[in-house]
Amino acid sequence: MKGHLKIRAFWGESENAVRAQIWVAVCTYLAVAIVRKELRIERSMYEILQILSVTALDKIGLQELFSKTDTILHLKHN
After folding, report:
1. At the N or C end, where does the chain have fewer CB atoms within 10 A?
2. Higher pLDDT residue, 73 or 46?
3. What does the pLDDT read at residue 62?
4. Residues 42-70, mean pLDDT to the nearest whole number
């Protein structure tokens, strides 16, 4: 989990800001892990987080997103 949190820099300098950023990252990771289990997604957490980062603003359901991911990612990179 620690390797997937993607905290490269802290946005705030206070202890409270750092704690809040870490908790947001942990909550996001756990929410994605729950969705992965509920939807029975066979991809790794790393792959799922990468897909979500590329398609964050797309209006598409998660079921459809992960069934069509290869096509969507190919179109986004071209």
Report:
1. C
2. 46
3. 84
4. 82
CB 12 within 8 A of CB 21: yes
What is the number of other CB atoms lying within 10 angstroms of the CB of residue 25? Answer: 16
Counting the structural domains of the chain, the total is 1
Would you say 32 and 1 are in contact if contact means Cβ atoms under 8 Å apart?
no
Supply φ then ψ for residue 34, to 5 degrees. -65, -45
CA distance linking residue 52 with residue 39, whole number of Å: 15
The separation between CA 35 and the C-alpha centre of its own chain, rounded to angstroms, equals 11
The angle at the Cα of 78, spanning 55 to 70, to the nearest 5 degrees, equals 50
| Amino acid of residue 34 | I
Please write down the HEC assignment for all residues of 46-70.
HHHHHHHHHCCCCCCCHHHHHHCHH
Range of the domain at 34: 2-77
> Which H/E stretch holds residue 75?
helix 69-77
